[in-house]
Amino acid sequence: VQLQASGGGLVQAGGSLRLSCAYSGSTVNAYHMGWFRQTPGKEREFVAAISWTGVSTHYAASVKGRFTISRDNAKNTVYLQMNSLKPEDTAIYYCAADKELLRAGSRPDEADYWGQGTLVTVSS
């Protein structure tokens, strides 16, 4: 499974960004997908996850109600729509694939595959 994240950038507080993660591989649509983020000196933390069908989603408490994860299996892409961004959302965002559905509290070592990160910077 290969993952390629994109869509990061600089945005003012209160603004929005949409991250994308293109995935490929012979069995990739059987994988649940997720997003984590990491800031310098801190462990990578769970942000959101979506089942391979797209029916089930999970969010970290810090982003619930502001972020929305979705996927389009026809386009082999998972998205993270981020609204009402705050400076504390500044981080490198990573997409991940896993055979088990990740959820709030999931550790990064639970993910099977990782994409490269995309930097999101929210200015105050």
Tell me what the structure shows.
With 124 residues, this protein is mostly beta strands. Helices cover 0% and strands 49% of the residues. Strands 2, 4, 5, 6, 9, 10 and 11 form a seven-stranded mixed beta sheet that branches. Strand 4 and strand 5 form a beta hairpin. The model has no long low-confidence stretch (mean pLDDT 95).
Largest sheet at a glance? Answer: 7 strands, mixed
Pairing-aware structural class of the strands and helices? Answer: mainly beta
Name the beta content range.
over 45%
If you compute it from the alpha carbons, what radius of gyration comes out, rounded to the nearest whole angstrom?
A: 13 Å
Q: Kindly state the percentage of residues in helix.
A: under 10%
Quickly list its features.
single chain; 11 strands; globular
Topology of helices and strands:
Elements: E1 2-6, E2 9-12, E3 17-24, E4 32-38, E5 45-50, E6 57-59, E7 67-72, E8 77-82, E9 91-98, E10 113-114, E11 118-123
Parallel strand pairs: 2-11
Antiparallel strand pairs: 1-3, 3-8, 4-5, 4-9, 5-6, 7-8, 9-10, 9-11
Quick rundown:
With 124 residues, the protein is mostly beta strands. The chain has strands at residues 2-6, 9-12, 17-24, 32-38, 45-50, 57-59, 67-72, 77-82, 91-98, 113-114, 118-123. It is built from no helices and 11 strands.
